[in-house]
TrEMBL record, chains A, B:
GO MF: DNA binding
SUPFAM superfamilies named among the record's database cross-references: Winged helix' DNA-binding domain (SSF46785)
Keyword terms: DNA-binding, Transcription, Transcription regulation
Entries under Pfam families matching the protein: HxlR
InterPro entries noted in UniProt: HTH_HxlR (IPR002577), WH-like_DNA-bd_sf (IPR036388), WH_DNA-bd_sf (IPR036390)
The protein's name in its UniProt record: Helix-turn-helix transcriptional regulator
Amino acid sequence: MEGFDCATDDPRCYCLLSDVLDLLGRKYVMDVVCVVAVHGTVRFGTLEDHIPEASTSTLSARLDALEAAGLLTREQYDEIPPRVEYELTDDGAELAERLEPVLEWAQKRATAES
Amino acid sequence: MEGFDCATDDPRCYCLLSDVLDLLGRKYVMDVVCVVAVHGTVRFGTLEDHIPEASTSTLSARLDALEAAGLLTREQYDEIPPRVEYELTDDGAELAERLEPVLEWAQKRATAES
DNA sequence: TTATTAAGCTGTGAAGTCCAAAGTAACGGA
DNA sequence: TCCGTTACTTTGGACTTCACAGCTTAATAA
């Protein structure tokens, strides 16, 4: 993203948005971060239970992307049946923390309209 | 989204996510909210300048969606050339406020990695 | 002995989303 | 008469996401 020279001096004008914001603006990314944050460590199946609208392939892709972005870690245990555990990194946890007011707001809205 | 009965009692477990979160997890939605928040009122062209990666059709679709969700208003002036101004509603402004720590974090990350 | 089960994926073709580029409308100025 | 202005729509093609099937491997069940 190149630097557009914004007219305002407002520091809230984040014209240079990072790749991470791109990632965040993808389906289910916030959901995944939230679920992992709440559970501490999560297995794939648990994520599927919490976010049933997401296909396994999409979920898998999101986990890969989040790992690549350094927001979560993947620990694989060589057992049968396989076991894999996901956990937020410190960076991911910080994001989750900052995401909380947004989710809170979304929930407030969801309950208000029903 | 149906109610999966989450194992944790953690109030941060927002298993019932609203349509608005679906909207937020779409490309450029956070960007648009942020730009409008900073400028107060914005015209279409300004948004294009700030978010050049988004096509006009996508931008237009996002504005429609945000208006439909009650997060921004559209004021059209019958002039030639046409003038249309977008502004956040109170609800939209509250979202923008809660989004700020997230954007701040994203920016911190963007500058750190370069 | 063969079938089933488990979890965490990957692969498939179809459906949906997003893109760049061109087109639309209407009027004033050259 | 044609150009510039603004805020879009339209188009056909590329990229994403979908639901669903299949894969793996070893312990158990029939």
